[in-house]
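2024-03-11 09:14:02 DEBUG pipeline.ingest accepted 1 chain
2024-03-11 09:14:02 DEBUG pipeline.ingest length=893
2024-03-11 09:14:03 DEBUG pipeline.predict start
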Amino acid sequence: MLAFHGCNIPDDIIAIHKELDALGEEDKEIATRIKVVRESINALQAIVDVLQSGYYIKSVIPFTDEDGRTGNICSFTNGGEIRVYDGVDASDGSVPRIGAQQEPNGIWYWTIDGSLIYDDMGALIPISNKPGSGETIKEPDDMIPQLTIQGGYWFISFDYGASWKQLGQASGKDGLDGEDAPDKILSIDQTSPDFLAFVLMDGTTLSVPYYKEIRIHFDMDDMDIPIGERETIRIDYSLTAADDGTYVSVSTDGFYTAVSKQTSELEGYILVTCPRGYSDGFINVVVYTKTGISDMKVINFCEKRMSFSEGCEFDVPIEGGTVRVPFVTNFDFRVEVDSKSDDWLAVNDTRAAVEKSGEIAITALENKGMARSGIVYVYSDNGVEPFASIIIDQESPNCKADNGSYVISYEGGTVLSNITTKLGVSLDIPSDGWVRGEVIDRGNNEYVAAFTVDPNPGNEPREMIIMVNSKSGKTPLTKILLVQRGRNNDLEMAMIFIVNPNYSNDFTAFLPIDVDSHYKWFGKSIPSDLDCFIDWGDGTPGEHISVSDKRWELPEDQRAIRHHYEGLEVGRKFEVVVTGTVPSLDARNIPKSFRSSVTEVRQWGKLGLRNMDYAFEGFIGLETLHPDETGAFAEVSSFINAFHDCPRLKTVSEHLFDYAAKATDFGGLFNNCQSLAVIPERLFSNCSSALSFSTAFRDCKALASIPENLFAGCTLVTDMSQVFTNCFSVVSIPEGLFKCCPKIWNCDSAFKGCRSVREIPAKLFENNGEIRTFAQTFEGLAIAKLPEHLFDNCPNVQSFNGTFLSCRLLEKVPYSVFDNQRKVLSFESTFRECALWKESPYTILSDGTKVHLYERKDHPDDFVTPIDYTSCFRDNNNLPDWDSIPEAWREGY
C-alpha cells in the first residue's frame, strides 16, 4: 500500500463552462450530458493522479444531484474527491469512448476508442501532471480534453480549443445505441474488500486501495507503567496495516531516554530508561506514514511502589507454619526464596502477581536446631535486583534468647541476656580474660546470662563470641556476640550506625554516605569535601574514604560504601563508627535489597552534614530516629525524602530537628512511613527557614493524629501540597494547624484521602490569605457539611479543582462559601460525586443580583471568568437548580 500527499484536483474543465453558458433552456438535456461527461473526465484525471502519487480511497458515498442523476462520491486521503455517475441516457445518442493507458515509462496517457492520442508534434498526451521517468509533462490545462456537442455530434479538443475532432453522433436514431451505446465514461466496482476498481468504457480497470488505519498496539493493558530509578524496560509493539513507509518515532519529557527499534514492517520495541532520582514522567510514541501522523500514544511512568502494612519481618513458630504477608503494590512481581533458606522456607505461589493488593504466603518447616532467619526476595516482573526483602525468623525449640549481640562502651560494664530453655544453661567463654560470666537461674526454665566486661585500654574495638550450651554442655543453644568500642577521643562527634548484616543482605552492611564529587546545598552544586574514617566494629582494620578515591567514577551499582562480615550467625549486630567529614548522606547508590542493614542511627555526631536528600530512603530496618544532640543538622539545607519509605519507622524524637534552622525543604520527609503513628508536636519548632512540607507525611497510614502546633515555628512555609495525603487513620484536623503559616500558597491534596475525617474546622485557613490553589484538598473525606466561612480569608484562590471530589456524604454547602473568591479560574469537579441537595453556591451582588458559579461569566466586572468547570456538580442530581446548570458544569463534555 502507498502513503498519501495532498494534490490539487481541478474543479472544472476549462472552456466547458463557455459551452454550458451558451446553451439555452431548450438544450438543457444536452448541457446535462456534457456536465456528466466533464465530471467523469475530471474524475479520470484525479484517479490517475492518485495512482501515481500513492493515495488511498477514504470513503465511497452515494449521491443524487440537482438533476436527479445518481452516482457515488469517492473521497481520497489527500483531501480530494470525485463524482462517478451511474450513467447518462444513451437512448438518443452516445458518450465518447475516452480512456486511459499506462505506458512502460509509468505515465498514463489519454485514449479514444482504445487508441492513444497524439498532439500536432507527434507526442502522446499525458493525463496526470505527476512527473515520471524524467519525462517533461505538460501543464494541467493542456492535459484535459474538452468536449462539446455541435450539430448533434460530439467534438473533442486536446489543444485548448484550437482544433476540434468530430467523434460519434450525440443524439438521434443514427447515434450509437442499443448494445453498442456506452452510457458512461467510467463506473466503479466495489466487490473487492481491499480496493475500489474504476472501470473505463474500453474495459480498462484502475484499482485504488482502500485506506486502512495504521494503529500501534502495545503488549500491556495499562498505559501507566511503574518503573524504578535507573531501570530500563522493554515495551513491545505491533502495527496494523503498516507499509514500507511507516515508521515509529519516540520522544521523552527530557528526563527519560527512549529508543525505538522496528524489527519488521509490523513489529518492534521501545527501550525506556528512567534516570536517577526521577521516576514520574512520560514518552510520546508517534506513528508516521507518507501522509503524516497516523497514530499517537502517550505512555506515562510512575514510581514503583510496594508497601507492607505489617512490616517485612515475621516470626514463625518452632513447629513451622504459614506466614501471610499483606502487600499493596502498583506493579506485577515475582517472589523467590534465598538459596540459603530454601531448605526450610517455601513460597506457596511464585507466579507474577496481577492483583495490586493481597498476601504473600510463606511456609516454614519445623525447626529442630538453633534459631534461624531466612529471606524471601520480591522482584518486579522484569527486574534483576530484589525490590524488597521479607525476613522470616524462627526460634530454636531448645532456647529463646533476648538478643544475639550487644554493643558495649569502651568503659566496660555489665550485660544481661535473658534465656528461656528446658535444658539448663552453661556458658563457654573464651579465656581472653576481659569478659566474665555467670548464669542466674530464676526458675520456671528462665535464666539470665550476666557478663561483666572490663574497660578497653586500646583505641580499637574488640569482640567476643560466647557459646551458650545446655547445662550438660552437650547441646548448643545459641551464640551471643559482645562488641566493645575502643577508646576514641572523637567518639562524641562521631556518627554511629547499628547494622544487622544478615541473610537478607548477604552479611554485608551498606552505609548511605554520598561519595559523589559534588552535592547539593541550597540548590547549588558544591564540591564534596568527603574525608572520613569508618570503624566497622568487627575488629578488621578501619577504612578511609575520601572524594580523592574517585569512587564516584565507578558504575553507580559499585559506588556504595559497603563491608562484608565473615562467618556470622543470624541476629548479630555491629556498631559502626564514622568520624571525619561527611557532607552528604544519600541512599540512592545502595541497591534496594541491601537497605535493610542499618537498623539504627544511635548518634548523629557532627560530621559537617549539609545535605540529607534521600539519606535513608527505603531503609526497611530503621525503627527509631534519635535526637540530634550535637548540631549534626545545623548546616543541612534540605531533607527531601530523607526517610521516605521506611516501613518500620515508629519513633521520631521531638529533638531530631532542633538544629535544622537552615533547612528549607522537607518534601517527602516521612512519605510512606506506614508504621509512624505519632508525630511530636515540637518536631519542627526550630525549622524557621522551612519553605516546603510537600508530601512530608503522605501515606503514613498509621498516623492517628496531627499536633495543632506542628508547624508553629514555620512562618515562611509556602507549600503544603499532599502533606497528609492518604493518612487514613487521622480522624480530625486541628483548627490552628496553619495559623502560623501566612505565606502558604499551595494546599493541593493536603488532606486528600483522609477518609476518617468527618469535619473541617471553620478557622483552618483564617490566616492564609495567600493560598492560590485548593485542588483536591479535601477529596474523599467523610464530611457531611462545610463551615460557612471556611474560605473567607482566602481571596486569591484560583483553583478549586476537585476540592471536594468524592466526598460522598457532603450534603450541605453554604450558598456564600465562595463569596470572597472572585479570581477563581477552575471549578472542575469541585463537588463531583457529592450528595448536595440545596441550591448550588451563589453570590449576591450589591445590587441584589444572585450569581451562581456557572453565571460568573455573565458578570466580568465582578468575577474572573472560569475557564475550567467541567463536571463541577456531576452526580448531584438533587440540586434544586439542576436543570439551570449548563451541561458542561453538570456532566462535562
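2024-03-11 09:14:41 DEBUG pipeline.report The CA atoms of residues 181 and 693 lie 88 Å apart.
2024-03-11 09:14:41 DEBUG pipeline.predict end
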